[in-house]
Amino acid sequence: MVKALPPEFYAPFLSDLAKERKPSPIRGLYPLEARPGVISLLAGKPNATTFPLTSVTLTSRSPIDPTHEITTKVHGQALADGLQYGPTAGLPALCEWVYGLQEREHGRKKGEGWRVSIGAGSQDVIFKAVMAMVNTGDSVLVECPVYAGVLPMFQSLHCDLIEVETDSQGIRSSSLRSILENWPELKPKPKVLYTVPYGCNPTGMTATLDRRQEVLALAREHNFIILEDDPYYYLYYGDSPRHPSYFALELEQPEVGRVLRFDSLSKILSSGIRIGFACGPEPLLAAIDMHTAVANLQTPSLTQTLTFALLDAWGYAGFAAHTAAVSSFYRAKRDVFAGALRRHLTGLAEWTDPEAGMFFWFKLLLGSDDGNGEEGDSESIIRTKAYERGVLALPGTVFLPRGGKTAYVRAAFSLLDEDQVEEAVKRLKETILEARQS
Ligand code: PMP
């Protein structure tokens, strides 16, 4: 039997904003409508009979046999639910699908110390989680380099961003330990750690099992919550089986409840469909939902309905076949990019081939030590010189929580075909050679 941390455990983890939020006076009463026999005069829901859509037909490639198409018609009650306001936490059918998925993938059973909330992409629920947990000026632990998309969230709260080092094995638990063990006595300890454990954006690195276990142990020892942002979980190219997620691994702890996990359907179904989900302890999810109830009422019902219709038509086996196919597709792209890097940038850059995700993170070897032992700066070379040669990549500086210089560059390999990769990497080579001469 799984033991979950009690609801009162989370009070210190909630931000002042979350604590002060009042439940939406109308949305908070929605569940009461469900009691049989109740006649509801509650919400100003439009009468669905006035909505003109009568049916939506989805046609998808069969994940099991891509030469076949699967046609799914969404109509009747399913469409009516998709056209109407729905529960703040998400369309019940889609939430149930997520419960089933998380049990299959992470061994987490519904009702055992966690629940789900659907967002408009994972970014939506990550933002709301940060607002639910972090106060202005708080210290927060972030891996370094870090997904640039979360930095503005912490920066606008004037957070003290504590950089946890990473390397080819993902987040360095020894760096985390040293930060926490040397934490100033009078300064409040960080309540959250943000990390991307698979195919990290930007480094492409995947945290090893040992690192994950150590980070979890530290979360328990130093009392913080792990924000596990895992949109690249399904894009794994390794030959050995995938490491368990933090969400799965915490089942080995004496109690669960220190992981708030974020999944995204963006990289595997569609990024425009805007579906992601947060899974974790009820009090944190409740705070996220209260934000949603104020900010946008809910994630669009229709997108959730269509997503569920597709996933339901495929079944979990179909979803697994689909994610496996998507991951082989990107694995081939990774291999092409790795080949071009080896051919053109050996001796001019350093990198580790990513085992997951969509990014190569490489260090330009500019051969120009600035005298302070610093490794160089990719900023102007990539932003200006490489662009002038017709190649656009991201200088590593944008991923540094506290700013500074870096010789690293992020290159996304998800879209290019072989010829484009060859040309892009050649252009990078010429740029580096030119920079070395100047
Ligand atoms: N986290 C990370 C690490 C990402 O790379 C992205 C997308 N670039 C997101 C979150 C946001 O994804 P979504 O489309 O699900 O909002």
TrEMBL record:
Its cofactor is pyridoxal 5'-phosphate. The keyword Transferase applies. InterPro entries: Aminotransferase_I/II_large (IPR004839), Class-I_PLP-dep_aminotransf (IPR050859), PyrdxlP-dep_Trfase (IPR015424), PyrdxlP-dep_Trfase_major (IPR015421). Keywords: Aminotransferase, Pyridoxal phosphate, Transferase. The keyword Transferase applies. Belongs to the class-I pyridoxal-phosphate-dependent aminotransferase family. This is PLP-dependent transferase.
